[in-house]
Amino acid sequence: MWQRRCAKPETVTTSTLECSQSGLAEYLTGRDEPLVIEQLVAEWPLVQAAKASNESLCDYLLEFDRGAVVDAIRLPASADGRMFYNDDITGFNFSRVKMLFKTALGALLAEQHNSTAETLYVGSTTVDSCLPGLLGKNKIAIESLDPLGTLWIGNKSRIAAHYDAPDNLICVASGKRRVTLFPPSQTKNLYVGPLHFTPAGQPISMVDFSAPDLNKYPRFEEAMKHALVVELLPGDALYIPSMWWHHIEGTESINLLINYWWRDVPAYIGRSENALYHALLTLKQLPKAQRRAWQALFDHYVFDDDGTRFNHIPPSKQGPLSELDENTVRQFKAWLVNNLKH
């Protein structure tokens, strides 16, 4: 692993939150910097089982299994855990397979002492559908945020730096996770790959963090000056704000985390990425002067924080310039769909 001296995210303990997880949702709401909460979920039965042994962890998980079939990734040992593209970027260096969840656990246990084992990884699996009842026995006090809980389990793995639009709280149950974080301002220095052709849905950094080629990716050196790096142990949690880039490594024979995603806007607002894709199709092709003009319009209508800038328009005529409710969003989405036909 290539390393340089990096800062660490802000770290607190559960005592800071006043009585374990109490007040967690309020503590996280509105944060725009990562936060490590040491031993936040240390009392989870899941974490206690993992601390006993890998076998104990798998036995505990299987108490909730109802024959779930999961999507798994297989990666040759030669890839050293890095899930990425193939050499000519025409495909990927891993294969996807479906298997019973209990079969995946059995395979991980069978290879737990094999240092040259291939990588087996089950990721982004909704906990309630895979292991119903698990979250009820391993609770976290963020119900008011209406989060989606997902499970990620595997042996050695390296997940390329990527961002997620929702806010994210990752809770390590087993193994160790090394996380490298970058603020959104470092996007240009991370050498991001294709938008439409990605390993797992989100665009990723093309830089190999274990051995970065600084001749090919020279600006990565600047990105690392802004990086935050943390190693998470069982029971630890890390809050990753929306749009922060994060590279995650699992370093033990079985690494398990539960993460929670949530958005601070209603679901009917839709995916912000759609606006980016549309802008690439319609604005990126314009001459420079026209792009700058549209940049000024976006600054005025979208990014300016002056809440009074539309006060000269009668409220009844502000449309999408005003506070949005579900009916207004649906109305203007239909208007947009109609315009896209021309």
TrEMBL record:
InterPro entries: Cupin_8, JmjC_dom, RmlC-like_jellyroll. This is Cupin. Residues 120-277 form the JmjC domain. Pfam families: Cupin_8. Gene3D superfamilies: Jelly Rolls (2.60.120.10).
